Automatic annotation (TrEMBL):
Residues 1-19 form the signal peptide. CDD domains: PBP_GOBP. It is found in: Secreted. It comes from Phlebotomus perniciosus. Belongs to the PBP/GOBP family. Gene3D superfamilies: Pheromone/general odorant binding protein domain. GO terms for molecular function: odorant binding; toxin activity. SUPFAM superfamilies: Insect pheromone/odorant-binding proteins. InterPro entries: PBP/GOBP, PBP_GOBP_sf. This is 24.5 kDa D7-related salivary protein SP04. One of its GO terms (cellular component) is extracellular region.
């Protein structure tokens, strides 16, 4: 992506700094659910079992889990605080599913509050959960079939560190962290930083500093810059965080 195009993308996204391609694929939707589960579940294994069955009880933790999943699926515009209904429609169409009439329930502002987003989207999810799961690869059959058709993607139950051996150069072949930074979701498929990604044990201020530095680069250098910046600021914290995420990449949630 050349500099002028990159600037245009940033402006079109209202300054969010990332550019996702739609419809989202099974690897990307699995990451969204897995990340939000781990971010919000704490030690409540009973609640986790419900989430894994796509049950969404009316409680404060689940409210924020639902907000998180809409964001991580790329279906929520944090600038306008609205569900990106056009992208939800595109996801259904991309999976050759009829666009449900209930999609109109997703329209309108939410003010960004977890509970309001939950209430805004609950009726749609209740009515369309079966097709929602198909649309976003939330079934084992659909997800497994996609991964089988895309061997170039990191398989399930495989560590990021193992998969990325020999793949860190990126498309340019000159970088050192292109593959792993993508799978740790610090950069997206267009080599733009992801502004809402959290790393365990790394402060938001450090992440922002390194995102800002990386955003001035292009291509696979974005990945290398964010890695090098975090490694310079907090090498022990970065190593621990990436080791944690690497171990978690073995799991299906």
């Amino acid at each position: 992506m050349n500099t002028l195009l990159k600037v245009a993308v940033l402006l079109s996204l209202g300054g969010t700094g990332y550019s996702w391609q739609y419809p989202r694929n099974a690897d990307q939707t699995l990451w969204a659910w897995r990340s939000c589960q781990k971010e919000h579940i704490g030690d409540d294994q009973a609640l986790l079992k419900k989430w894994l069955k796509f049950e969404i009880p009316d409680d404060k933790v689940t409210h924020c889990f639902i907000k998180c999943t809409w964001i991580h699926l790329g279906m929520y515009d944090e600038k306008t605080k609205t569900i990106r209904v056009d992208k939800v429609k595109q996801q259904f169409e991309g999976r050759k599913l009829p666009v449900p009439a209930e999609i109109s329930k997703l329209e309108g502002p939410t003010d960004g509050d977890c509970e309001k987003i939950y209430r805004k989207t609950r009726a749609f999810l209740d009515a369309q959960m079966k097709n929602y799961r198909i649309a976003f690869y939330g079934t084992y059959d659909g997800s497994d079939a996609w991964f089988a058709e895309h061997p170039e993607t990191k398989p399930k139950n495989t560590k990021i560190s193992e998969f990325c051996k020999g793949r860190e150069g990126g498309k340019e072949g000159t970088c050192k962290h292109a593959c792993s930074m993508y799978y740790y979701l610090l950069v997206d498929e267009d080599n733009l930083v992801i502004p809402f990604r959290k790393l365990p044990g790394i402060s938001e201020s450090d992440l922002k500093q390194c995102r800002d530095a990386a955003s001035k680069k292009s291509g696979c250098q974005v990945a290398d810059t964010i890695y090098d910046c975090l490694n310079k600021i907090n090498p022990t914290g970065l190593k621990t965080a990436l080791n944690t995420l690497d171990e978690q990449s073995l799991t299906n949630y």
